[in-house]
Amino acid sequence: MPSRTRLRMSDKSRNWYLIPYTAWIVLFVVAPIALVVYYSLFDIEGKFTFSNYAHFFTPVYLRMTLSSFWYAFLITAFSLLVAYPAAYLLTRTKHKQLWLLLIILPSWINLLLKTYAFLGIFGTYGFVNAVLETVGIGKQQILFTDFSFVFVSVYIFIPFMILPVFNALEKMNPSLIDAARDLGASSWTTFRRVIFPLTISGVKAGCQAVFIPALSLFMITRLIAGNRVITLGTAIEQHFLVTQDWGMGATIAVFLVVVMALIMVLTGNRKKREVQG
Amino acid sequence: MKQLARMFVVVFVVAFGLMYGVHALNSSEGYGGSNTLTIYNWGDYIDPDLIAEFEKESGLKVIYQTFDSNEAMMTKIEQGGTTFDVSVPSEYAISKMKEEGLLLPIDHSKLPNLKHIDSRFLDLSFDPGNAYSIPYFWGTVGIIYNPDLLDGWQITSWNDLWDPRLRNQILLVDGAREVMGFGLNSLHFSLNDTNEDHLQEAKRKLQTLTPNVKAIVGDEIKMLIANEEAAVGVVWSGDASEIMDENDKLDYVVPEEGSNLWFDNMVIPKTARNIEGAYAFMNFMLDPEHAARNAEYVGYSTPNKDALALLPEEIAGDERFYPSPELTEKLEVYRNLGKRMLAHYNELFLEFKMHRK
User: Fold this and answer.
1) CB contact under 8 A, B216 and A243
2) CATH number of this structure's domain B7-137+264-324, picked from the four choices 3.50.50.60, 3.40.50.10190, 3.40.190.10, 1.20.1260.10
3) Domain locations in chain A?
4) For residue B220, what is the nearest residue in chain A, using CA coordinates?
5) Which of B285, B354, B250, B136 is closest to A64 using CA atoms?
6) Do B215 and A60 touch (CB under 8 A)?
7) In CATH, what is the architecture of A59-276?
8) Does B217 contact A223 at a Cβ distance shorter than 8 Å?
9) Residues with Cβ < 8 Å from A257, sequence gap 6 or more?
C-alpha cells in the first residue's frame, strides 16, 4: 500500500513538471502555427478563400522561392566549406575552449549592428576598397552584390555550423583515425571513409541550423544586398508591414513551415537508417 | 514537487519586486498616472529642446516613442494595448485610420494657435475640415544628386534617371508608392493611377531602369548618399535637407514632371489617455516661434505661415523646399487607393525589384 501511494505521487508530480513545458508548446508553438494557417485562408478583404495558395503558385512567387532556395543553398554550402576545416583545426588546438569561445563571441553582438558595420567595411570609401586601391586592384563595387550578401550571411551563420561539427568531431574516438592510418589509408581516404561519415550527424545539424533561417532572411537582403536579392522572408515582411495582406504573408509562412518540416524529416530519416545498418 | 513550488514562489516574488521597483522609479521621476503624455512620432522628427520646454511649461512628463513607417504605426495602434496620446501619420494613413475609427475628432476651439496655419494646408481631401488632424509638416519626393560626381550635370526630371551616364549610380527609397509613383510620373500619368495598362507600362519602364539602380534601401539611404556611395538618390524632401546638412555638395530637385506632395499631420488616436495634454501639446507646436524652431531643426517644410515669416530667408526662400506655385500645381497628394490596389502596387514593385540586370 505505501509503495503504491508513492508511485501515484511520483506520477502526479511528473504531470506537474509537464505543465510549463506543455503550456510553452501550446502557447508558443502550436497556437502561432495554427494562427498562421488560419490567416492564410483569408484574402485581403477578410473573405475565406484558398486564392492565396493559388496566388503563391504564380511565376512571381515561384521565382522568389527558387532564388530563396538558391541563396540559402549557397550560404549553407559556403558555411560548411569554412566551418568544417575550422572545427577540425579547433579540435587539434591546445586551448580548444578558448578558441571556440572566440569564434562564438561575435554571435553575442546584435545582428543588425554587425550588418551595419559591413556597410562601412564594404562601402565605396570603406576599408576593403582602401586596401584594394593600395594593392593596385582599384575600387570595386562590393556592397549591394551577390558576393557581399553571401559573405555577410555566411559570417553571421558560421557559429551555428561550427558548433555542431565541432561537437561531432570531439565525440569521435581518435583511435579510429589511428586505426585507419595503421591499415594504410591516406589522409584523404581517412577523411572520406572515417572522419566525415562519423561526423555526418554534426554536419546535418549544422546544415539545418543554417539553411532554415537562411531561407527567410530579410534585413540583410535590404541592408547588404540593397534589395537586389529578394527572398521569401522579404516578401513576408512586406505583406505584414506594408501591404497588410496578412493572408498572403501567412501563406508564404505556411509554405516555409512545410518545407522546413520536410527538410527535418528527410535529414532525420537517413540517420535512423544508418543506425539500423 | 516542493522544489518546483518553491521555484514558482521565488519567480513570482522577484517578478512582483521588479514590477514594484519599476513603478517606484517611474513615479519618483514623475512618470505616473495622468501627468504623462505619450507622443508617437517618426524618428528624429522633433527638436528635443521643444519637448523639454513643453514639459516645463505644462508640468507634464513626455514619453516620446518612434516608428519608421505609417503601416507599422497603424498596426500598433490597431492592436491596442498602447497609450499613445498624439501621433503624426501621413495623409493616406489618416484617411485609412479615420475609416477604421482609430482617431478621435479634434475640437478646434481648444487650439487657438490653429489660426497660424496657411489655409492652403487646411481642409484637404484626406481630412475635410480637419476634423481629425492638424498639419505638422509637409514635403515632396524628389531627386538628390551630387553635381561633383556628375561633372556638374544638373538633373531636372524623372526621365534623367534613365540616362546611361548614371549606370549603377542611383539609390532608391524602399517604398512601393514612391517608386511606382515616379515610374508613373515619368510617363506623365498620375501617381494615383489605377489603370492596369498604365501600371504595367510604368513597371516595364521601371524595369529598364534596373542597370542604373545600385540599391533599393531604407533609412540608411541618408548615410549612404552623404558618404557619396552613389551620385543620385530618390528621397523625401526632409531626408534630402538632412543629407545636405551633412554634405553640402549635394543638391535637391523636385522633378518637372511632377511628384508627390505629402503631409504629416498630428492626430489623437483612440488609445489616448491624456486628451487635455494632447491638445496642450498640439497648441504648443502650432505656436509660430516653436514651429519655426522645429522646422529649422527637422528640415521639413512647415505649414505654419507665421512660422515661415520667422525663418531666415535662406530657408523660407528656398524653392527646393518651398516650391513655387507653378510647380506646386503639378504635385499630387497620395490618395488612399484601398488595400487591394495597394497590394497590387506592392506586387508590381516586387516584380521591379526582382528584375535582374
Assistant:
1) no
2) 3.40.190.10
3) 59-276
4) A223
5) B354
6) no
7) Orthogonal Bundle (1.10)
8) yes
9) A33, A36
